Amino acid sequence: MLRRTASISRHLQPHLNWSTGLDKTPVFLPVLLGTNRKLRRSVHVARWLHAAMLARPDIETELFDVADFALPQGDYGLDIKDQFPQWRDAIIRADGLVIVTPEYNHSFPGLLKHVLDSCLSEYIHKAVGIVGVSAGPFAGARVIQGLLPVMREIGLVAIFWDVNIGLVAKVFAEDGRLLDDAVIRRSDRFIKELIWMAKVLRHGREHVTVDDEVAERPPAVKCPLCGAPMTHHADKEVTSVPAVEAATVLAAHSCPACGAQQAMVTSVTG
């Protein structure tokens, strides 16, 4: 059996809220800026939102910029994942993701898709919130709409709050200062919903298995880091790399003891 694994621990003892059963460990929510365009105003949005998230005790975060990725021209997808270990490990550890992206010609930048496609199983059952930015009045609504099918395909779960910033030159000054306090109120709701979704999905990944209803439960997979039984929380059909027949199924597991994650190729479908 072909087996590929990706694992990382939160390196924190879980703190349980016994009234809800949810882990009270801060959620890790990286921010990804999706354009490398010169004179981009969306960089001000990403930096401001990242700082706002850093100020909260219930969030850990890290800012990534597609301009910092030396993306290859002759390769793509999962084959380049190990070329960007800081990004790979952040997504493995992450409980969710914030994407800040401008709208270019009714869509999202190609470099953003290039970076997103370098991972796959690492996204499954994790929350995502999208911030759309535009120079015009549509406030990134169309880029968010275009990204939603991509989020679904790679396994991320989109929240229903967005942050839409239109006429961005009137919202952020050239030096990055925020000019419109309405962004604070909208972003606060966005962050609260993202935290809620990230915590619920983390609990699900670690404690709710897809095998509850099967006639014969498969043997438990042991965590490669701490040895505890892992929770099988998802099966995701993906195009084979390399091709086996038509597609492969990735079984996604999470460890309720240390938060480690693991994905294995379990079967072939035709």
- Could you say which structural class the secondary elements and strand pairing correspond to? alpha/beta
Gap between N and C termini? 17 Å
CATH topology category name: Rossmann fold
Count helical runs.
6
H-E string: EEEEHEEHEHEHEEHHEEE
CATH architecture: 3-Layer(aba) Sandwich
Radius of gyration over C-alpha positions, nearest whole angstrom: 19 Å
Largest sheet: 6 strands, parallel
| Global shape | globular
Overall average pLDDT: 86
- The count of β-strands is 13
**What's the structural domain tally?**
1
Low-pLDDT residue spans: 1-19
* CATH superfamily caption: Flavodoxin domain
Percent of sequence in beta strands: 15-25%
What is the CATH class designation?
Alpha Beta
Describe the protein.
Residues 1-19 have low confidence and may be disordered. The protein is globular, with a radius of gyration of 19 Å. The chain has one domain: Flavodoxin domain (Rossmann fold). Helix content is 27%, strand content 23%. Strand 11 (231-239) and strand 12 (247-254) form a beta hairpin. The strands form four sheets. Strands 4, 6, 7, 8, 9 and 10 form a six-stranded parallel β-sheet that branches. It has 270 residues and is an alpha/beta fold.
